[in-house]
Write a structure and sequence with these properties.
heterodimer; A: two-stranded antiparallel ribbon; 73% helix; flat; B: D-Maltodextrin-Binding Protein, domain 2; D-Maltodextrin-Binding Protein, domain 2; 2 domains; 46% helix; disordered N terminus
Chain lengths: 295, 441
């Protein structure tokens, strides 16, 4: 008994540094945010007012939240499948033993290493009215007149989507690559003997064996896309414009937390709602992908 | 075993300290009057003692500013140190307002910091700015009347001063001499009234090469405010709600929208540039409406471009422009206010303003410094200096940030033609006022 207690104390002492960091930077802030979401608070002036579910009531009738949600969902619905599919294809190709595999891997990975702020600036240049993309499209007769991709209501969000797929797919590609190393080679050999072609092997062996990896990639993708902030912030200068086209939930939270005076409580309520939403969507995605059924 | 216990004890202590720090901010009891009387005790009016706080340190919270500012600031701090023996520690914030607010909430904000005129009403309402009247009264050679009145007013509430304008900027018209000549014009051909501008832009566009746009504009309320208010209707009513659709508010904005849709005006983003200064410097445009901060940028980055400046064309026969000004303000919770005031007195005094104005080509907020430096005799800066007399300060109550953000959201719709200008401003009013009503009461 005494030895067990000592062991316990020892164990906890080892964990204490991590526990303190988690407590200070994760648990306390989350608890504080939950508390703030029930108040009307001005942290600077130091005024607190308990409003119960008042902030949540406002949220459910807030037209801008509805727009932000619609944009965010539209974003996720396009970006998550696109980047997952692209990552899987790239990983499979790279894993098939093409020449210069390592070189390609490095090149593909570069966008992921670049900061998203810098990428957004580069994309804004590429997609500008006088930029190279428009120049190319007009030159080749694909467009009659250049399109203002960055400032046009119909294109601003799509531009960010394309950029995000391009910059995050390589990250997931490396995860898939690691997953592919674990797929048993004998399965492919057996399939080859049975006369399966490359497509059959890909759909019947590679994809099912990668389901746990895919689950992880989907989860990370969903969380990442639902929290999309920096690109939308830079492209619209923080306003979510043009005409709410790039207004995402995170950007809305930012606006209420830092740009509007005394709405930290409302921003906290929105953040809690977003967390719940991400949790629910992630669980649904996981259920749909049926990780357990394989084993 | 004992070691582990000690370690965990230490860790727990750290946690307690951290939490205690966090709690400080929940207590906002700062009383302006108390602090003012305190200062009256230790400052002697008769002979001002510059060495009274020798050996102390003041912290200042600022943003980086232009390269020239960054290069000149050490000179300013050095001169201050030599006079007073007080060391200046600067904290440069990347995201200024958010970082500053976080530090104010955490109770670790610097003794002094920049306050932009547009956020002044908000910070004042939150009670974080020190009333400076007591300090000014005890400093006979400070001479408050030497400052341009509209600039000082931007940081005053009911006659009490909460910030000293460190400098200011206004908007003017930049023109590219060579491009104008290429299109068959001289700078004198640029019209004096805004009403004539659309026709001029059209003619100019015709004469310019195909890849050069006639003019570049930044689309944002910070640039348009004076146009909406040109007919005398403020953009905020007495209750703090946005008003943008009244008689006379849109006439001149419509001209701008029409010229944009005709392709005679462009935004920097539309041209693929970071900001107007680059578009103008790269000779993608012949005309630009910008602040005097572009002067240093153009001289430094694009020394070969041949350009000049003039005052903005008149609206309804009246001159108009925007004035952007930033103050040095004092943290109401600072426990180092005596030394902080010495710093304020120095940097906002004649000598301090001269150092910054000479080194960083900022317009001094003191009339006497402007006169001594003969800014009115400088052909490039004179139009910006002249605008100080009539420019509208970038400030409009505590709800301005909401309207500003909403404006940035919907105004592009008017430029692109998805909305008419009237529809756009009505949406701005609806969205902004809805938010103000819900969250501000």
């Amino acid at each position: 008994m005494k030895a067990r207690t000592r062991e316990g104390i020892q164990g906890y002492s080892f964990m204490i540094p991590a526990l303190i960091i988690i407590a200070v930077f994760t648990i306390v802030p989350i608890g504080y945010a939950i508390y703030l979401s029930f108040t009307r608070v001005n942290l600077l002036a130091g005024t607190f007012e308990w409003v119960g579910f008042g902030n949540y009531e406002i949220a459910f009738s807030d037209p801008r939240l509805r727009i932000a949600l619609r944009n965010t969902v539209r974003y996720a619905v396009f970006v998550v499948p696109a980047q997952t599919f692209l990552a899987l294809v790239m990983a499979t190709v790279l894993n098939s033993g093409v020449k210069f595999e390592r070189t390609f891997r490095t090149i593909f990975f570069l966008p992921t290493l670049t900061s998203s702020a810098a990428l957004t600036m580069i994309f804004m240049f590429l997609f500008a009215v006088n930029g190279p993309v428009n120049g190319f499209l007009v030159e080749w007769g694909l467009l009659a007149a250049p399109i203002n991709f960055v400032e046009d209501v119909n294109f601003a969000l799509n531009t960010i989507m394309v950029m995000n797929v391009w910059s995050t797919a390589p990250l997931f590609m490396t995860i898939y690559l690691a997953g592919l190393q674990d797929v048993d080679k004998t399965l492919y050999e057996a399939a080859a003997i049975d006369g399966a072609n490359a497509w059959k092997k890909f759909t019947k062996i590679t994809i099912p064996n990668l389901v746990p990896v895919t689950n992880y990639v989907l989860l990370m993708g969903i969380i990442g896309t639902f929290q999309i902030f920096d690109q939308a912030f830079i492209i619209s200068g923080g306003s979510g414009g043009p005409m709410n086209a790039t207004l995402t939930v995170s950007l809305l939270i930012y606006q209420f937390a830092f740009q509007v005076r005394g709405t930290m409580g409302y921003a906290s309520a929105l953040a809690i709602l977003l967390a719940i939403l991400i949790f629910v969507v992630s669980m649904i995605a996981k259920r749909l992908n049926k990780e357990e059924s394989l084993y | 075993m004992k070691k582990f216990l000690r370690l965990s004890l230490f860790a727990m202590l750290m946690l307690v300290v951290l939490v205690a720090c966090g709690n400080d901010d929940a207590d906002p009891t700062t009383d302006d009057e108390d602090d003012a009387t305190e200062v009256a005790d230790n400052g002697e009016a008769a002979d001002f003692d510059w060495r009274a706080y020798e050996g102390e340190t003041v912290t200042v919270g600022i943003w980086g500013g232009s390269d020239a500012e960054v290069a000149t600031r050490p000179e300013l701090f050095e001169a201050f140190y030599e006079l007073t023996g007080i060391t200046v520690e600067e904290r440069i914030y990347a995201d200024f307002l958010i970082n500053l607010q976080a530090e104010l909430i955490g109770g670790i904000a610097p003794d002094l910091f920049y306050v932009d005129s547009n956020v002044f009403p908000m910070l004042h309402a939150d009670g974080v700015l020190e009333n400076l009247d007591g300090f000014i009264a005890d400093t006979p050679d400070f001479n408050q009347d030497d400052f341009y009145t509209p600039l000082l007013n931007a940081f005053s509430v009911d006659g009490a001063v909460y910030g000293i304008p460190k400098d200011f900027s206004t908007l003017g018209l930049f023109y590219n001499v060579d491009l104008l000549a290429e299109a068959g014009f001289t700078p004198e051909d640029i019209p004096d009234t805004m009403a004539e501008m659309p026709a001029f832009l059209a003619e100019l566009a015709e004469g310019l090469p195909a890849d050069v746009t006639a003019g570049v504009i930044q689309a944002g309320l910070a640039r348009h405010l004076f146009v909406y208010e040109a007919a005398g209707t403020p953009i905020m009513d007495a209750d703090g709600f946005a008003v943008l659709d009244q008689e006379g508010q849109l006439d001149y904005m419509q001209l701008l929208v029409d010229s944009y849709q005709a392709g005679h005006l462009a935004t920097p983003a539309g041209l693929g540039d970071g900001w107007s200064g680059d578009s103008f410097g790269l000779e993608n445009v012949a005309l630009m409406i910008e602040g005097n901060w572009a002067v240093g940028h153009l001289n430094l980055q694009f020394p070969d471009v041949n350009w000049g400046t003039r005052e903005l064309p008149t609206i309804n026969g009246n001159q108009g422009s925007m004035a952007f000004t930033v103050s040095w303000s004092m943290n109401a919770a600072s426990d180092n206010q005596g030394a902080a005031w010495l710093f304020m007195h120095f940097v906002n005094g004649v000598e301090g303003q001269e150092i910054m104005a000479t080194g960083a080509s900022l317009l001094p907020s003191r009339v006497s410094v402007a006169e001594e430096m003969d800014i009115a005799g400088d052909p490039i800066l004179a139009p910006f200096q002249a605008a100080a007399a009539y420019a509208t300060p970038w400030q409009s109550g505590i709800n301005l940030p909401i309207v500003y953000s909403t404006y940035g959201n919907y105004f592009p719709g008017a430029l692109s033609g998805d909305l008419t200008l009237l529809e756009a401003v009505q949406r701005i009013m609806e969205a902004a006022n809805n938010e103000i009503e819900t969250h501000m009461q």
